[in-house]
Write a structure and sequence with these properties.
- With about 525 residues, the chain is mainly α.
- Helix content is about 60%, strand content about 5%.
- Strand 2 and strand 3 form a beta hairpin.
- Helix 5 runs antiparallel to helix 6 and helix 6 packs across helix 7.
């Protein structure tokens, strides 16, 4: 990608003074974001519990500084003036993204930003102890404040944007996505996915699947994850892997922080978690270097971001060719056993079995977990239900969507994810959007790269990474989401590819051309 229109490094007369002022301001904001991101990572991965209150105060202070930078009085004037300056197309895209960020920040008063940060920092840190203890009552005491501030933010963003409150929160993660677009997509999934799950379970009922026999030492798991991440071309000179209660990707492109979690009784969760987060990490490391610090360099959306992690975890991670090349690494880490035969490992990671935990869900039932969260958080944000109502709604939804009994099990129920304690309302739909996009990307890859599957079977993942780099990573936020999808695959989001992928993988239906 060309770095057209960069702010000159030396003083000279400029024909775009307002734009240049904005670019300098957003570079400063990027530096603050860098420090904030590392403080978040440290809080989740390294900070002792006794530092929670001090860290909450520090994060609230940094949030206030970032908010001040994004709502500085001169920015509105500069945004207006820059519209009339002779900008190239790339600068125009950057200006569009600058305006989006300013509008969202300007809708919220500083005191609310600080209150929200304090509420989420306290709730998120306490959740790390309350979840293992199944302490819903203790969690609720902090969570009420999180919901209250999120509702305030939703109302103010709604007033500024004209969107409904939940859409206004979702727009922060997935620009342009609304309930009006999402509801038909989820309705379509509900119409065929349960039947497909039943078909696949019937098909798999006669299969014998050997479970790997542990224990699997944590250090051996860590080394395996690192080896696989190197194969996936993660740049460890600009990133690292650590441990957290809930796996995540954080940091900045220059310093990407990934985490996974380990259990000595099994290793599949840590490995697939590391593969998933590596997809996020490669996207961050692949963003255009010349434009780092500017909004146009940011990932297009979290749905697109999840499409990268799910391209790695689901499309690649469960591909027979990928599994075959994993086997020698697994044997090196843990020794040999019958369960490590390639066919058995493939059956293991494609086994369809509804369960309680979203991050451990199989590829078919994963979307049901996402729809459950959406069914609860939309009315929660819009005031139709209260935080106290969540467990009963969760129990009903899990029984209906996945046939699971979660009564009294808060740890593996509504407390299982960090998203709600951290007020990430509107994020969950991005997971299913990401799965749909990932299938669409691989359909487009197979059209343009007929030898793609043969390359994966040979252990050569370069064609996959090259396509993603050209069409997704280097494009960053140059285009709107719909235009990015059209340029990459020839069409906007199309769930047909997702269904075709699942039917091909799990029923043996031929992949459409």
């Amino acid at each position: 990608m060309q770095a057209a229109g960069r702010v000159p490094a030396h003083a000279m007369a400029s024909v775009t003074p307002a734009y240049d002022e904005l670019a300098r301001s957003f570079t400063r904001q990027h530096h603050l974001d860098h420090l904030q991101a590392l403080a978040y990572w440290d809080q989740a991965a390294m900070m002792p519990a006794g530092g929670a209150e001090a860290r909450a105060g520090a994060l609230a202070e940094v949030a206030a500084l970032v908010h001040q930078a994004r709502t500085a009085p001169g920015l509105a004037r500069a945004l207006a003036q820059a519209q009339d300056e002779p900008l190239d197309d790339f600068q125009r895209a950057n200006l569009r993204e600058m305006a989006r960020e300013w509008q969202a920040a300007a809708a919220l008063p500083e005191h609310l930003v600080q209150r929200s940060q304090l509420a989420t920092a306290r709730c998120g840190q306490a959740w790390r102890q309350q979840r293992p203890a199944n302490d819903w009552a203790g969690f609720l005491r902090n969570f009420r404040a999180v919901v209250a501030t999120a509702r305030e933010e939703a109302q103010l963003l709604s007033q500024r944007s004209g969107l409904r409150p939940y859409d206004a929160l979702m727009d922060r993660f997935e620009p342009g996505m609304t309930c009006a677009r999402l509801d038909p997509l989820f309705a379509d999934l509900r119409s065929w996915l349960p039947g497909l799950v039943q078909q696949v379970q019937a098909r798999q009922s006669g299969q014998t699947v050997l479970q790997p026999q542990g224990p699997f030492p944590v250090e051996a798991q860590r080394q395996l994850c690192l080896q696989v991440m190197q194969w996936l071309q993660f740049d460890f000179n600009r990133g690292r892997l650590d441990v957290s209660t809930h796996p995540f990707a954080g940091g900045v492109p220059e310093d990407v922080r990934l985490t996974t979690r380990y259990e000595t009784g099994e290793f599949i969760t840590s490995l697939l978690g590391a593969i998933h987060e590596t997809g996020h990490g490669r996207y961050e490391q692949g963003r255009p270097q010349a434009w780092l610090g500017q909004p146009v360099s940011l990932a297009r959306s979290m749905g697109i971001h999840e499409s990268q992690s799910l391209s790695f975890e689901m499309q690649l991670g469960r591909h027979p060719g990928f599994i075959a090349h994993l086997v020698p690494m697994i044997r090196q880490a843990f020794g040999d056993q019958p369960a490590f035969e390639p066919d058995n490992l493939l059956r293991l990671v494609t086994r369809v079995q509804p369960g309680l935990i979203r991050v451990d869900a199989d590829e078919l039932t994963y979307a049901a977990h996402v729809m459950l969260r959406y069914d609860i958080e939309r009315p929660l944000i819009e005031g139709e239900i209260a935080p106290e109502d969540i467990p009963a709604l969760w129990d009903t939804g899990m029984a209906a969507l996945l046939g699971q009994d979660t009564r009294g099990n808060f740890r593996d129920g509504p407390m299982q994810d960090v998203h709600w304690p951290e007020a990430m309302f509107g994020y969950f739909p991005c997971y299913t959007l990401g799965a749909v996009y990932a299938a669409q990307w691989f359909a487009a890859m197979r059209r343009s790269l007929p030898g793609l599957d043969a390359s994966i079977h040979a252990g050569d993942l370069t064609p996959v990474f090259g396509w993603l780099d050209r069409h997704i990573w280097q494009q960053a936020s140059r285009w709107t989401t719909d235009e990015l999808a059209t340029r990459a695959s020839g069409e906007v989001l199309n769930p047909m590819h997702y269904r075709a992928h699942l039917e091909a993988r799990y029923l043996g239906t031929p992949v459409m051309a």
